[in-house]
Amino acid sequence: ESGYSCTSSLYLSAYSTTKSGDKTYKCSECIYSCTHSSELKVHMRKHSGEKPYKCSECDYRCTNAGSLKLHMGTHSGEKPYNCSECDYSCTQSAKLKRHMRTHSGEKPYKCSECNYRCTTTGGLKRHMRIHSGEKPYKCSECDYSCTQIGHLRAHLGRHSGEKPYNCNECDYRCATTEGLKQHMRTHSGEKPYECSECGYGFTQSAHLKVHMRIHSGEKPYKCSE
């Protein structure tokens, strides 16, 4: 016996279902199943699009009270979850768990097609598009499509000319955070991409790729004349 007691037979019934692991409530739209009718009710909002919980500070809406509570942290600035290894803090325990993998080196999500591993399900999902060829993000100005929303934002900057990311060391501006990160290495001297054959370092992986052809002898570009 677990020693559990409660004030209602309904609560006892719900507890017994949870304890047994029986998932009697099944979604009619997908394979989702759960132990409580309230959980199924929340899940069905994903199919119906219903978002009854609304933020009082902005236009954000969501399907459940828990998500709204997490969202409100973006307005209050409260970040109760703190990393024990560095100064990182965040609004959700799940985010802290993902962050801790940057310290531990743990990469629990593995690609079924190659040796790629990563720290998040989102990262694996993006990677799998390399194998499937799926490019769900499409430019409204031209035929460009890509695998990641960040790449689309960078591309759209070419149409608009917008360069919102500024270097704090010089006048350099660019359209993406990755572009700024690469540029900052010209100031810091950091060269994280190192040749395994000679030890020469580069600020960008693309530069290392070109350099490796010196060792491999590869000459992929041929004159058509």
UniProtKB/TrEMBL annotation:
Q: Which domain of life is it from?
A: Eukaryota
Annotated compartments: Nucleus
Where in the numbering of this chain does the C2H2-type domain appear? 25-52, 53-80, 81-108, 109-136, 137-164, 165-192, 193-220
List, alphabetically, the GO terms of the cellular component aspect: nucleus
What are the recorded GO MF terms, alphabetically? DNA-binding transcription activator activity, RNA polymerase II-specific; RNA polymerase II cis-regulatory region sequence-specific DNA binding; zinc ion binding
Q: Which residues form a coiled coil?
A: none
PANTHER family per record? GASTRULA ZINC FINGER PROTEIN XLCGF7.1-LIKE, ZINC FINGER PROTEIN
Protein name as it appears in the record: Putative zn finger protein
Q: Which organism is it from?
A: Triatoma infestans
Instruction: Kindly list the organism's lineage.
Output: Eukaryota, Metazoa, Ecdysozoa, Arthropoda, Hexapoda
